[in-house]
């Protein structure tokens, strides 16, 4: 007999939801802290130019940033801390998973400037890989960098409307777009349309609540399925 693929797809959806907001698996005994980034000089930044769009492919998602020159990258990350303090020293510390997840729930983020090592965390870096998708829409490199610099600081976070990909496409191409969010929403719609699995519907409802920052204790997951489709469509 053929196994029902919907529960497997729902499980993948939940995993992808966490990866889309950049949650990284932590080693045992890490206490919720991120592992240290590679040492300075790990990346050859001589091939990067100010205003370049940097991509770091992960297992199921891509993290994006705008290179500002002098080993500095502006990128958007969910983070609860800017909602409580304006102390730049505290905010500039490496974002832990706890800060990140709370930022997703409260829809709080910051556009921060980090070294290439802190931004990429050992991953391979693609440069201006998205230019081929936008053709004549590419803005000047200096314009892209200036847009990124102007936006540095606390900002709202939304998986659907304001994530790291929206940030970089606005800076380099003039319009906020997120292709991986579009793929995520298509996965959600595929699972919801398949009525063979009640479990899948519940999981999608829970994923919607986490994604949209809503209170699961007061709302049944199934109520949010049509709402999520409306938001995603």
Automatic annotation (TrEMBL):
Residues 1-28 form the signal peptide. The chain crosses the membrane at residues 198-231. GO terms for cellular component: endoplasmic reticulum membrane; late endosome; perinuclear region of cytoplasm; rough endoplasmic reticulum. The active site is at 164 (acyl-thioester intermediate). Pathway: Cofactor metabolism; retinol metabolism. It comes from the Eukaryota. Keywords: Acyltransferase, Cytoplasm, Endoplasmic reticulum, Endosome, Lipid metabolism, Membrane, Sensory transduction, Signal, Transferase, Transmembrane, Transmembrane helix, Vision. InterPro entries: LRAT (IPR042288), LRAT_dom (IPR007053). GO terms for molecular function: phosphatidylcholine-retinol O-acyltransferase activity. It is an enzyme of class 2 (transferase). It is found in: Cytoplasm, Perinuclear region; Endoplasmic reticulum membrane; Late endosome; Rough endoplasmic reticulum. Coiled coil: none annotated. Residues 53-180 form the LRAT domain. It is a single-pass membrane protein. It catalyses: all-trans-retinol--[retinol-binding protein] + a 1,2-diacyl-sn-glycero-3-phosphocholine = apo--[retinol-binding protein] + an all-trans-retinyl ester + a 2-acyl-sn-glycero-3-phosphocholine; all-trans-retinol--[retinol-binding protein] + 1,2-dihexadecanoyl-sn-glycero-3-phosphocholine = apo--[retinol-binding protein] + all-trans-retinyl hexadecanoate + 2-hexadecanoyl-sn-glycero-3-phosphocholine; 1,2-diheptanoyl-sn-glycero-3-phosphocholine + all-trans-retinol--[retinol-binding protein] = all-trans-retinyl heptanoate + 2-heptanoyl-sn-glycero-3-phosphocholine + apo--[retinol-binding protein]; 1,2-didodecanoyl-sn-glycero-3-phosphocholine + all-trans-retinol--[retinol-binding protein] = 2-dodecanoyl-sn-glycero-3-phosphocholine + all-trans-retinyl dodecanoate + apo--[retinol-binding protein]. Its EC number is 2.3.1.135. Its main location: cytoplasm. One of its GO terms (biological process) is vitamin A metabolic process. Transfers the acyl group from the sn-1 position of phosphatidylcholine to all-trans retinol, producing all-trans retinyl esters. Retinyl esters are storage forms of vitamin A. LRAT plays a critical role in vision. It provides the all-trans retinyl ester substrates for the isomerohydrolase which processes the esters into 11-cis-retinol in the retinal pigment epithelium; due to a membrane-associated alcohol dehydrogenase, 11 cis-retinol is oxidized and converted into 11-cis-retinaldehyde which is the chromophore for rhodopsin and the cone photopigments. Belongs to the H-rev107 family. This is Lecithin retinol acyltransferase. It comes from Balaeniceps rex (Shoebill). The gene is Lrat.
């Amino acid at each position: 007999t053929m196994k029902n693929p919907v529960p497997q797809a729902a499980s993948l959806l939940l995993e992808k939801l966490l990866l889309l907001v950049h949650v990284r698996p932590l080693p045992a005994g890490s206490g919720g802290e991120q592992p240290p980034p590679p040492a300075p000089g790990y990346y050859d930044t001589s091939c990067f130019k100010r205003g370049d769009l940097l991509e770091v492919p992960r297992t199921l998602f891509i993290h994006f940033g705008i290179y500002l020159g002098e080993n500095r990258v502006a990128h958007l990350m969910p983070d609860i801390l800017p909602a409580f303090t304006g102390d730049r020293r505290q905010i500039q510390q490496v974002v832990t998973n706890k800060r990140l997840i709370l930022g997703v729930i409260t829809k709080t983020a910051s556009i921060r400037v980090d070294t290439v090592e802190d931004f990429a965390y050992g991953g391979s870096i693609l440069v201006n890989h998205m230019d081929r998708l936008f053709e004549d829409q590419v803005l000047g490199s200096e314009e892209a960098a200036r847009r990124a610099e102007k936006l540095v600081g606390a900002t709202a976070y939304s998986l659907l409307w304001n994530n790291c990909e929206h940030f970089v496409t606005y800076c380099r191409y003039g319009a906020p777009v997120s292709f991986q969010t579009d793929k995520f929403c298509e996965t959600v719609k595929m699972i919801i349309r398949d009525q063979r699995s009640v479990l899948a519907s519940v999981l999608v409802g829970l994923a919607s609540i986490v994604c949209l920052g809503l209170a699961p204790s007061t709302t049944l997951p199934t109520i949010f399925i049509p709402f999520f489709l409306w938001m995603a469509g």
